[in-house]
Predict the 3D structure of the following.
Amino acid sequence: MRDVITNLIKNYDGTGRYLDRNAMDSLKSYFETGTARVVAATTINANAASIVKQAGLQLFEDVPELLLPGGYAYTTRRYAACLRDMDYYLRYASYALVAGDMDVLDERVLQGLRETYNSLGVPIAPTVRGVQIMKDMVKNMVTEAGVNDTSFVDQPFDHITRELSEQDI
Ligand SMILES: CCC1=C(C)/C(=C/C2=NC(=C\c3[nH]c(/C=C4\NC(=O)[C@H](C)[C@H]4CC)c(C)c3CCC(=O)O)/C(CCC(=O)O)=C2C)NC1=O
């Protein structure tokens, strides 16, 4: 599992270099967004249960067939599994936001996930939609918490979306 700093050090150490101008620039931009990253993680932590619940309601409103017989949130077991998955995405997104690196998502969440979903028949498109709904909710909350530029919040949610959507050739 990596973060901006360990990743940078690993790269420079690999070639025996001192941290140069590029390294300093990337460290600076990470530290400059540091407070905002902490605000985002705090916001997610304080609202996680309600974010998952509201995003689930929104998703099932947008894609109501998920709840019908044959749908992938039909039966309490599947419904609960779906919300649990949303909660995983949100929690790991908060880790990735603090780390400033998507490695934790790759390692702990996304590895083999698409294959698992495919073999269970869990549809990717509505899952991606659920992730994007959570992204929008978190961004609004982080804005309300006083952060002007919330573009960094997109990163983990879009990373999950991209990795889930990627097609095998
Ligand atoms: C921390 C990393 C991690 C992830 C990400 C994870 C996902 C994950 N989701 C699963 C199931 C599932 N996931 C869903 C999800 C959904 N159903 C819908 O209608 C929506 C489209 C969607 C929610 C947005 C469902 C319904 C199942 C159960 C499928 C089944 O057993 O039939 C399963 C199969 C095993 C199980 O049921 O627990 C895994 C491994 N597990 C992990 O350990």
